[in-house]
Fold these 2 entries.
Entry 1:
Amino acid sequence: MSDAAIIPLDAIDPALVEDLLDRAFEPERRQRTAYKLREGTDWLPALSFAALDAEQHLVGTIQCWPVALTDPAGRRHPLILFGPVAVLPEAQGMGYGKALMTAAIAALSPKAQLPQVMIGDGEYYGRFWGFSSDYTGGWTLPGPWDPARLLARGASPAVLPKEGMLGPWRN
């Protein structure tokens, strides 16, 4: 990944981002539960990044989204959904995804850090960034999901409700 650059995602043509996501996850990606989690919301520009290779070609992206965990009493608890983390198939294993995750986490405000949530490999995202399924066992999602892959992290994820429905943040 030498001579690569991590830049704000909003500097990239949205059509290029969509093409990259299609190549990384197939066009059927829009049917996944993760898309229902962010339906009707816009990604957060301050936490979303693109990776460019040495030739300045787009090879990866990360988008972060506002979501909420609605507890059984109807209270909404805001969180930040990390993902998709997408890297072109031919560029995977070169450190782009790790650099994108690190950039997004580094961009979080230490003064008002919301807990973060993602759907991903617990061993990988736990080892590098402290994501865990320890706090999400009683959560539900608006579609099928593997409970072991629903991960959370934050300054104090234990303050989140033990039960609730995760969905888009809407004012």
Entry 2:
Amino acid sequence: MSRLIRQAVVLFLLLTAVTGVLYPLAATGVAQVLFPAAANGSLVKKDGVLAGSSLIGQSFTQPGYFWSRPSATSPGPNNPAASSGSNLGPTNPALTDAAKQRIDALRKADPGNDAPVPVELVAASGSGLDPEISPAAARYQVKRVARARGMDVAKVEALVDAHTKGRQLGVLGEPRVNVLELNMALDATGR
């Protein structure tokens, strides 16, 4: 019996060392060599200072910036420690109220814009951390951003086009615009 217990303990310690120490170290080492930016969180720096991650959404509320998709994480928006959706169903009045408030905020920020509001500017994503919006959602905001920055609309549209990423491998997903990267490009214009 003691021999079986000793074998079980040795096997447990061996498997713990392999799967809990050696494999994670090897996987981390390979990722650092082959994909260092992704392995370190796809961090984005501005003038040597950390500005965020291209994988986690950020809240922008000033009229001179493109706004991200709403976040339902708690206790605050875009909290990566609490990634989740709102879990509000389509028949829940709280979901309708939240959507109406978001539409009202968009209309108030850009009263002359009577175009239909793209859904991702109203509805939170399943993770609550989506860093990207559709090109249509970015174009919806172009005039507000251009007016707030004193820029020509065509220049802001050109920035949106330059920061629009296509489908992955030409077939996966939808075209998208990373809001943090687009807003940093806006700041780089000096306006």
